[in-house]
Design brief:
The structure holds two protein chains of two kinds. By secondary structure, chain A is mainly β. In chain A, 0% of the residues lie in helices and 59% in strands. Chain A contains no helices and eleven strands. The termini of chain A are far apart. The termini of chain B are far apart. Helices cover 0% and strands 48% of the residues of chain B. Chain B has no helices and eleven strands. The chains are: A mainly beta, B mainly beta.
Chain lengths: 111, 115
């Protein structure tokens, strides 16, 4: 089955850019998602990218997809303290409607 | 509008007991998912409903776990003879089940503690 890997922690200074990385194994992956989880709250979809795209930009968020290396990244520009949360990469394969989630990257933003 | 709700928010039980966890999806969403999230892990898929039927239950760990969605709306996850290893946050999500990408809307979860 699909395996999704993420680094566990990232610490940045307020105002800097954050880059969260994700690798996956299934080359037939179709949709790739980034979810955000704040303490005590459910996961919330931030953005997604379809496998025929290399890049997607949405305000402060930029998603890059390298299909050859099976690598996905999420860049947050001008990171704010409110961006502190756990970010999950999720990958869906071949119309399965069932995404596989990574372990999550805990983003800590300090002043 | 209302999002996905789950009850109870916390459940403490003793080993060997039976528990039921409830999920109220967003009205009109045909797809409903159950996940289990252990500390420091991502959500782990358990079961997926499309309407009233379980379209995929391959994530259920064993036959102590069962889920129903009799009217295609509310779903109940049932765990028999609970074990300490069942302790986790159980997440429910729903989606419209239409279109290309599959945005899932998650509830806040039920934290299950088995003593």
């Amino acid at each position: 089955g699909e395996d999704v890997e993420q680094s566990l922690f990232l610490s940045v200074r307020e105002g800097d850019s954050s880059v969260i990385n994700c690798t996956y194994t299934d080359s037939s992956s179709t949709y790739l998602y980034w979810y955000k989880q704040e303490p005590g709250a459910g996961l919330q979809l931030l953005t997604y990218i379809f496998s025929n795209m290399d890049m997607k930009q949405d305000q402060r968020l930029t998603v890059l997809l390298n299909k050859k290396d099976k690598h996905l990244s999420l860049r947050i520009a001008d990171t704010q303290t409110g961006d502190s949360a756990i970010y999950f990469c999720a990958v869906e394969s071949g119309g399965s409607y069932i995404p596989t989630f990574g372990r999550g990257t805990s983003l800590i933003v300090h002043p | 509008g209302a999002g996905v709700s789950q009850t109870p928010s916390n459940k403490v039980t003793e080993k060997g007991k039976y528990v039921e966890l409830r999920c109220d999806p967003i009205s009109g969403h045909t797809a409903l998912y159950w996940y289990r999230q252990s500390l420091g892990q991502g959500p782990e898929f358990l079961i997926y409903f499309q309407g009233t039927g379980a379209a995929d239950d391959s994530g259920l760990p064993n036959d102590r776990f069962f889920a129903v969605r009799p009217e295609g709306s509310v779903s109940t996850l049932k765990i028999q003879r609970t074990e300490r290893g069942d302790s986790a946050v159980y997440l429910c999500a729903s989606s419209s089940g239409q279109g290309g990408y599959n945005e899932q809307f998650f509830g806040p979860g039920t934290r299950l503690t088995v003593l």
